[in-house]
């Protein structure tokens, strides 16, 4: 049987910006949370498995009402060695819809890629339906290596000791806020982790931003228009 997991929550005041729009960093937290809840509900535990996000792409088709109840649904949409893709659908009771997909990499406790085991495939393989998770990066590299300073907070650090994936979306909100009204599509690629205190530079062009440490692109994000 193909596994799908769903849960409900209310959009909180702290998840919206001044006009009431649900922010992309809040959406990223929702995706992370529902994935974690699904994992635990399936009988796994956090201590024996390590997952990191490689790429997330989301499309906001319709705006949500502030503080509305929303339903979040997720399922495995592809597998590939030590990687799995996960689809998400978020719908509001009074309107609003987001469709998203993330690529997750399965690691051992030394943070090296670890192949997906038979237990994972037994539970999630049916919903993947033979589809292969696409792990390659697609966003362009910057032409220059100098930008403006960017910093993260101590509260942005996750249990692996790196900056949590949702915190990267704050840079998207900061630089592209006026372009994030629905319908809109955005993608964020996590190339290398960022640690708290590293000297991060933010570069940008018309539709793409890059977070860099020295000459290394640690993350890239882009925002595009979407068909209503």
Summarize the structure in words:
The structure is a single chain. By secondary structure, the chain is an alpha+beta fold. It has one domain (5-225): Hotdog Thioesterase (Thiol Ester Dehydrase, Chain A, Roll). The protein is built from 3 helices and 10 strands. The chain has helices at residues 24-41, 118-128, 169-176; strands at residues 5-10, 50-62, 69-80, 83-92, 97-107, 148-150, 184-190, 200-204, 208-213, 216-225. A 10-stranded antiparallel beta sheet has the order 1-3-4-5-2-7-10-9-8-6. A hairpin with a 3-residue loop joins strand 8 (200-204) and strand 9 (208-213). It starts with a strand and ends with a strand.
Q: What is the count of β-strands?
A: 10
Quote the average pLDDT: 95
Q: How many H/I helices?
A: 3
* CATH fold group: Thiol Ester Dehydrase, Chain A
Overall helicity: 10-25%
Please provide the ordered H/E string of secondary-structure elements. Answer: EHEEEEHEHEEEE
**Tell me about the biggest sheet?**
10 strands, antiparallel
CATH domain class name? Alpha Beta
Topology, element by element:
Layout lengths: L4 E6 L13 H18 L8 E13 L6 E12 L2 E10 L4 E11 L10 H11 L19 E3 L18 H8 L7 E7 L9 E5 L3 E6 L2 E10 L3
Antiparallel strand pairs: 1-3, 2-5, 2-7, 3-4, 4-5, 6-8, 7-10, 8-9, 9-10
Q: In a few lines, what is going on in this structure?
A:
This protein has 228 residues and is an alpha+beta fold. The chain is built from 3 helices and 10 strands, in the order E-H-E-E-E-E-H-E-H-E-E-E-E.
């Amino acid at each position: 049987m193909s596994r799908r997991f769903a849960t409900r929550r209310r959009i909180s005041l702290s998840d919206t910006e001044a006009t009431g729009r649900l922010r992309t960093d809040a959406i990223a937290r929702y995706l992370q949370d529902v994935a974690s809840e699904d994992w635990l509900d399936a009988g796994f535990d956090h201590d024996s498995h390590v997952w990191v996000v490689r790429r997330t792409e989301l499309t906001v088709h319709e705006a949500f009402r502030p503080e509305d109840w929303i339903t979040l649904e997720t399922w495995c949409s592809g597998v590939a060695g030590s990687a799995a893709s996960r689809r998400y659908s978020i719908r509001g009771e009074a309107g609003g819809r987001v469709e998203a997909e993330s690529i997750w990499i399965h690691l051992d406790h030394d943070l090296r890629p670890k192949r997906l085991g038979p237990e994972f495939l037994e539970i999630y393989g049916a919903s993947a339906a033979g589809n292969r998770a696409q792990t390659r990066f697609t966003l362009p590299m910057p032409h220059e290596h100098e930008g403006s300073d960017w910093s993260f907070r101590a509260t942005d650090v996750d249990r692996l000791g790196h900056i949590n994936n949702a915190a990267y979306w704050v840079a998207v909100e900061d630089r592209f806020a006026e372009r994030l009204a629905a319908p809109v599509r955005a993608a964020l690629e996590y190339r290398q982790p960022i640690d708290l205190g590293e000297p991060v530079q933010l570069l940008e062009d018309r539709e793409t931003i890059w977070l860099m440490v020295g000459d290394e692109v640690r993350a890239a994000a882009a925002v595009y228009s979407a068909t209503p």
